[in-house]
Amino acid sequence: MDVSVPVSEAAADLPALTAPAGRPFGVYIHVPFCATRCGYCDFNTYTAAELGDSSPDGWLAALRTELELAAAHLGEVPEVSTVFVGGGTPSLLGAAGLAGVLDAVRARFQLAADAEVTTEANPESTSPEFFAALRTAGYTRVSLGMQSTAAHVLKALDRMHSPGRAVDAAREARRAGFDHVNLDLIYGTPGERDDDLRGSLDAVLAAGVDHVSAYALIVEEGTALARRVRRGELPAPDDDVLARRYELIDRHLGGAGFAWYEVSNWSRPGGECRHNMGYWNGGQWWGAGPGAHGYVAATRWWNVKHPATYAAVLAGRRLPVADFENLSEGTAHVEDVMLRVRMRAGLPLAALSAAERTRAAIAIDDGLLRADGGAVVLTDRGRLLADAVVRSLLD
Ligand SMILES: C[S@@+](CC[C@H](N)C(=O)[O-])C[C@H]1O[C@@H](n2cnc3c(N)ncnc32)[C@H](O)[C@@H]1O
Ligand code: SF4
């Protein structure tokens, strides 16, 4: 058991920030707790055994201080259009804990009347009462990690819930009054067959949700999954299989009234996640919690990762910023292209340099992009090769 605190995580001084008006402003809160660690996951999250004394209560107290210091740092505090509580496993806090998180945001930031307020949740730590209390607290959207309905796939992913629990949880959330519910799927897990994925998609549709995120399994370095693949116990996901599965997902969801609005995200009309759209569309946000990233004006920063370091820095009433960078115009442009080309709305030609427009024309000839009004949009084949399209545009 490792309960040591990394001493190398020193706090840096964040420069003064003024949030430009007219761009959506979000708040992201990172909850760094999980009951167990899934073998594929490299997110900044910790089990109780790894944390020792760093309890969720201590984290919430530190979070309140961070939000107080954040509002003071911003000076003129912009109205918040979206809040996203992610993890880790936010549902481990329970409905009362999550209500406390939203209260902490409201204590320092003014939420827009129509603010989107999302929390992620793991199916096994939810119930009808949990969703009802979240709704009362002011949450408007729930994102559930379903991954698959095939028992052998869930086992390969080390997921703790039973195959049917995510769908039941989504229905409970809908019954509690949530119009906006997302289910996350992972495809390409070793041992998954096309029929397993079809079964998961049928279950998603039966659950009556308005949003689906589907991610190709990434074998992240340093995870248990990477070690198993390296030892030859599991095959690495195969690119051709991943492409076929992506097409299957798109067809299945498309036939049921969902449309893609970002390469890995599909929704019914009006079900798009506004918070994530902010990340992809040049919005700005304050990221609070251990390891959270923020982006305001041209400054990006990231917090210290370990919850104990986070709490210790905040106990000294300093922002828990590990480091920051001021993005040059060139870097901001590269990131803009990388993110916006993945969206259904596409990349406005006006945002591209002359050389990039020439390269976009070549990608159109190659059938990877198509012109749509004043923008270029990925074709179906282009979506399968989105990273290569980005590289070819930026050269
Ligand atoms: C980091 S989790 C946080 C929410 C929650 N704890 C859960 O597991 O659903 C958010 C989503 O990221 C996706 N994810 C995490 N690691 C991944 C990986 N290595 N490859 C593909 N998707 C991954 C999963 O679909 C997961 O639902
Ligand atoms: S996938 Fe979700 S539940 Fe699993 S370890 Fe990562 S954050 Fe925790």
Automatic annotation (TrEMBL):
Cellular localisation: Cytoplasm
GO CC terms of this entry: cytoplasm
Keywords per UniProt: 4Fe-4S, Chaperone, Cytoplasm, Heme, Iron, Iron-sulfur, Metal-binding, S-adenosyl-L-methionine
UniProt keyword annotation of Membrane present: no
SUPFAM superfamilies: Radical SAM enzymes
Gene Ontology annotations of biological process type: porphyrin-containing compound biosynthetic process
Broad class of the protein's primary localization: cytoplasm
Pfam families: HemN_C (PF06969), Radical_SAM (PF04055)
Location of the Radical SAM core domain: 19-259
Gene3D superfamilies documented for this protein: Aldolase class I
Family note: Belongs to the anaerobic coproporphyrinogen-III oxidase family. HemW subfamily.
Function: Probably acts as a heme chaperone, transferring heme to an unknown acceptor. Binds one molecule of heme per monomer, possibly covalently. Binds 1 [4Fe-4S] cluster. The cluster is coordinated with 3 cysteines and an exchangeable S-adenosyl-L-methionine.
Protein name, as recorded: Heme chaperone HemW
Lineage: Bacteria, Bacillati, Actinomycetota, Actinomycetes, Mycobacteriales
Gene name tied to this protein: hemN
